[in-house]
Design brief:
Length: 300
């Protein structure tokens, strides 16, 4: 019986290594430019900053660290980068991967050990999403570590698509126009959070992470569980991008071009005072709803 061997792939279909290398170089340059622009536009990093780069082991945080290291070499101001990972004591978590990777790079790093896995598993009912509680506990641990170790900035790996998705989540489910800002001061005023990937598309991060062959560690705290609402918004955005390429880019740009006078927030714009005639009395809502005439004098 003769063995059937697969035919070799036609040369015309094989990727030319030179073309692949050129495209990867263009991608790396684009990411450096976008991250550099975000840092400059929002004043994310200043001279003397000690930046805590939160590294989860996912494609986004790997890309953020990699690009920041490249920019650091030629940055106009000196600043320090320290990679920090929160070991949440998930069963089967490969504890050696991040330390080995960071030692090979020669990057200063610290591993915070905190058993949030047991807490989340105990508190959240079976079948419910754990992402929200896990995120809050992770943020609390990182904030505490940043304060104790003198970090002036906390860098998170959220990208452009995350910012747009959060806007729609707040719009659809919380009835407010707000999102995930590229730069944020914590509620207690102690921490400045920055998102250097704010201008970067997720698809570019996927390609960059594959090209750089980062040792990705999947989040299996809850079986790679994903918040249902965020997943629905993500599917909606993917469909938009397929049907109207560039729509997400347009929405992302719109988040930076707000017109308070064309919305309806009384706290941001003085609508009652718009066109108000000097000397004219203003009636409040109670007066308008009371139904009393403005002139109580006699009639015909």
């Amino acid at each position: 019986m003769n063995a059937v061997l697969p035919l070799p792939e036609p040369a015309s279909r094989r990727a030319d290594p030179r073309i692949v290398q050129r495209e990867q170089a263009k991608l790396a340059k684009r990411l450096r430019r976008q991250v550099g622009e975000a840092i400059a536009d929002f004043g994310m990093i200043e001279a003397g900053d000690k930046v805590m780069v939160c590294l989860s082991g996912g494609k986004d945080s790997y890309t953020m660290l990699d690009v920041l290291l490249q920019l650091q070499r030629k940055a106009p101001v000196p600043f320090e980068l320290v990679a920090v990972n929160l070991d949440q004591k998930q069963p089967g978590f490969p504890e050696h991967v991040l330390p080995d990777y960071l030692r090979a790079l020669g990057v200063p790093f610290n591993i915070i050990e905190q058993d949030t896995y047991s807490v989340v598993s105990r508190v959240v009912p079976e079948g419910k999403t754990m992402c929200s509680l896990c995120s809050r506990m992770r943020r609390g641990a990182l904030y505490a570590y940043a304060e104790a170790n003198g970090f002036t900035k906390i860098a998170l790996g959220h990208h452009r698509d995350d910012l747009v998705a959060t806007f729609f989540l707040n719009l659809f489910h919380h009835a407010k126009l707000s999102g995930m800002p590229p730069k944020l001061l914590s509620d207690d005023g102690k921490h400045v959070v920055i998102r250097p990937l704010a201008y970067v598309r997720e698809s570019d991060i996927v390609d960059y992470a594959a090209a750089r062959r980062f040792p990705i560690i999947p989040c299996n705290l809850c079986g790679s569980q994903e918040n249902l609402q965020r997943k629905q918004v993500g599917l909606m955005m993917q469909q938009w991008e397929r049907e109207s390429p560039g729509r997400i880019e347009t929405i992302a740009n719109a988040l930076g071009d707000i017109r308070p006078s064309h919305l309806a927030d009384l706290k941001l714009f003085d609508f009652p005072g718009l066109g108000h005639r000097q000397g004219a009395a203003r009636a409040d809502a109670h007066a308008w709803l009371a139904g009393d005439p403005h002139d109580s004098g006699g009639g015909d």
